[in-house]
Structures are given as C-alpha cells and as structure tokens.
Amino acid sequence: MMDELDLLKKDWQRKGDYFPKVSSDEIHQMIWKKSSSIVKWIFIISILEFIIPHLFYLFPPSMQLKEGFEMYDRMGITPWFIGASVLQYSIIFYFLYQFYRRYKEISVLDNAKALMAKILKTKKTVTYYIITSLTFLFMTCVFIAGYFYFMDDIEQVLQLPENAKKISPTKLKNIFAGSILVLGIIATVCFGGLYYLIYGLLLRKLNRNFRELKKMEM
Q1: pTM of the model
Q2: Could you give the CA distance from residue 13 to residue 148 in angstroms, rounded to a whole number?
C-alpha cells in the first residue's frame, strides 16, 4: 500500500510543473510525522507483547500449571526458575523503557540529520531487542534440555506411569532432552518469523524514511 509520501511523488511525476511545489521543510515534516507514528507503534506492540500472555494469569491456575511448578521443585531448579524470571522481566522492562525513550526522542521535531540519527538509534534498539529475546528463549530451552540429559533420577522427577518405567533412564533422558531442544528450535524460529513480520515491517518503513532524508541531505 502506498503511503502519503509515495503518492505525492507519483503525482509529481505525473503532473510535473502543474503540481503545486512542496518545500523540503514540508517533506521533512511529513517524514518526521510518519517516523514518529512508526516508533509509537513499536512501543505499543512491545507493550501488547508483554501484556497479552499475562492475561492468562487472571484465570484460575490450571492443573498443568500447578504440576509444572511441582516438577520444578522435584528437579531442584525453582531458585533458577525464579532467577531466570527476574532476569527476563528485567530485560523486558529495560527494552520497554528504551522504546518509550525512542518514541519521546523522535516525537520532537528536529533537523534532517538529527532525525536520521534517531531513526538509526530506534533500529538498533529493535534489533537488540529481537536478538536478546530469541537468545534468551533458546538458551532457556538448552539449559532445560541439558538438565534432563544429565539428570540421575529422571523417573522420580517426572513421575512416569509404570509402562513408561520400562524404558531405560538413558533413553528417557535422550528423548526428553531431544524433544525440548527441538521444541526450543521450533519456538525460536516461529517467534523469529513473527518478529520479522511485525517489527520487520515497521523497520522497513523506517528505512524508507531514512533513505528519503538521506537524499534530502545530499
């Protein structure tokens, strides 16, 4: 879909001298408004990304959730789980604050050179956020898979039914560790694709604005 700036250029090419001339300041202001709107949406989407999964906590806890916490206790990783959760929330709130800062910074009308610097800063923040989020997700899965693989009492921790206990502990560890690792890879790829679709679209629009500003500076 063509945006306002693209339509303006198309009209310039079609109508030539008959089209009212638009000053570079007006074009700059148009690009600034578009860039500010894009960064605002990046901030809004990051907030929704944090809020939506936490809406499930408003419902009564399911048996699966309760059993999950009980298994953490049996595995002896509850302190690690709490520490990882604290780290995860720290990372999330840090980037939410950074996105808010980028939005407030770009909301102030500035010259083309300063606006280009703000766009680049926003792009770097989004890129760091995506890399950090995907790395944290994958490394968490690697840690859990490794823990299962080196676990000594896997039958007791998982509380398997009698028929499953016939499988050797080594095979069980390989199955669980491999399954978690595969699920971690799939989840990382899926979230990476989702980030590419959502944040990638917004970053491509910012890139287009950056190129337009660069042409105006030449």
Answers
A1: 0.79
A2: 64
Among candidate residues 146, 208, 215, the one with its CA nearest the CA of residue 1: 208
Burial of residue 40 (CB within 10 Å: 0-12, 13-18, 19+) is: middle
Q: How many Å separate Cα 196 from the centre of its chain?
A: 9
pLDDT digits (tens, 9 = 90+) for 14-24: 544 544 555 66
Residue whose token pair is 């693989």: 149
Domain boundaries defined on the chain = 37-216
Q: What is the pLDDT of residues 30-54, one digit of tens each?
A: 888 888 999 999 999 999 998 888 7
Cα 212 to its chain centre, rounded Å, is: 27
160: left (phi over 0), alpha (psi -120 to 50) or beta: beta
